[in-house]
Design a protein that fits this description.
Layout (H helix, E strand, L loop, with lengths): L5 H11 L1 H6 L1 H4 L6 H13 L44 E2 H18 L6 H21 L5 E5 L2 H4 L15 E4 L6 H17 L5 H20 L4 H5 L14 H15 L2 H9 L15 H14 L6 H14 L20
Amino acid sequence: MAKRLPLTLFISVFVILGSSISSSVQIQAAGNPNYREALAKSILFFQGQRSGRLPAGAAQQITWRFNSGLSDGRLANVDLTGGYYDAGDNVKFNFPMAFTTTMLSWGALEYGKRIGPQLPETRAAIRWATDYLLKCARQTPGKLYVGVGDPNMDHKCWERPEDMDTLRTVYSVSPSNPGSDVAGETAAALAAASLVFRKVDPKYSKLLLNTAKNVMQFAIQYRGAYSDSLGSAVCPFYCSYSGYKDELLWGAAWLFRASNELYYYNFMKSLGASDSTDIFSWDNKFAGAYVLLSRRALLNNDKNFEPYKQQAEQFMCRILPNSPSSSTQYTQGKHSCFH
């Protein structure tokens, strides 16, 4: 079993519960569980995982953290400073980091107008990741950097990132060593973030979208799982257990939403149908893609997207409590999520 990235757990709260948090601030402000407080802390949590040269003043509220990982990328003669650590480790795993970025951007898009003072903090958390992902995608033609730090060595030594002396190995995928999964997820993150910044920073948004298109083309043209290319550098930590078809669908879905280019719609059709699922995670994105694409059927009444809507409904029925087809168990507090 691969371990689950704590950052993604916080973002699940952000996206799934966002509407109830923002629409019931007065009720939930002193509630139990207090989802408003959970949202605020989920955003603050990212500052504690920042790698690189930290900003001064109010932009860095976790004041016991300092600069770290300033030589990241040096072994490959590139600059890979920045990004996020893996919440307890000092490794930067781009696969789950990019998924976290996609989900954080999705939450901002869906609920940005209703989360008030948390929106600037959310944008800052997204940009800290996308600045790093842009470095990973743009520095060496034909190569996508996908991680920094030897996970096997790192897991043997618990230390502050400010003090780390473990090897900062650089990992990448290329045409000869493909990684459609990590590339597809990186493209999704950049495309989703481009929508977040479209109005507030158009130049940055355009850079994100153009880079996303290039990374997605790499994912499509050179097919293969990054686990096969990188082996023990990513397994068993973040193997792509579900394969890479879900990331191809997920990345194309976000690029279609961001660009509205028919190329991505036609590509999604070429992937064919997939089985129903009751899982949505950093590894398996089919359900997320179904929900994202069902917007076209719901908001635009586009019958071409009806199959995705049906798949999304099946997913919902599998995860909702008391549903006749539910296949999911919940911990205490479940009912608050579905009021």
